[in-house]
Specification:
mainly alpha; 177 residues
Length: 177
């Protein structure tokens, strides 16, 4: 199980961090964030599809084609934690060493986009206050870590649950005569 979890988690983490690095560089230089959010979540789904592969591989090749929901979820959870931690660590390096003003640029873009879309001053003030909380959290590494885990971890947990439900198997299938 350890090998499956480690390999699947590392591959998922490489997918996540690669797409994040490229998309962050693109949005940071072009100031276009919307398409990158779609790409980011699509890459999370792609990366976390390795949970399905890992659980199925363990069930079929190492566990006599039987796996409980709990065991399947645990495998998915471990894969999620490895990939998510790689994502968070990569973001910390990217943020602190290469783009320390990312949050300011992103907030300016979001407020400007709301103006273009015709938001009232009350809505703009509300959006600015919301981003003020995020900006405050980004002043400490712990805040950056928590917010970054909140981006990626829920997606992995949801996919882990779905995979555990789909792949659980209590009894060994009957052999064809």
């Amino acid at each position: 199980m350890k090998k499956i979890v480690l390999v699947s988690g590392l591959i998922a983490g490489i997918i996540l961090t690669s797409v994040m690095a490229v998309s962050t560089a693109v949005c940071y230089t072009t100031n276009q964030y919307e398409g990158n959010m779609v790409l980011g979540y699509a890459s999370m789904i792609l990366a976390f599809s390795l949970i399905f592969v890992g659980v199925k591989n363990f069930r079929d090749n190492y566990n006599n084609r039987v796996i409980s929901f709990g065991k399947a979820f645990k495998i998915g959870l471990y894969i999620t934690l490895i990939a998510s931690t790689m994502y968070v660590l990569s973001w910390l390096v990217e943020y602190y060493f290469f783009i320390p003003d990312f949050m300011e640029k992103y907030i300016a873009h979001a407020v400007n986009q709301a103006k273009i879309e015709g938001a009232s001053q009350l809505e703009l003030d509300k959006k600015a206050a919301e981003f003020s909380d995020y900006k405050e959290m980004y002043k400490t590494p712990v805040g950056v870590i928590l917010l970054t885990y909140l981006e990626v971890l829920p997606v992995g947990l949801i996919i882990s649950l779905i995979c555990a439900l789909l792949l659980k198997r209590k009894n060994q299938p009957m052999q064809a005569a």
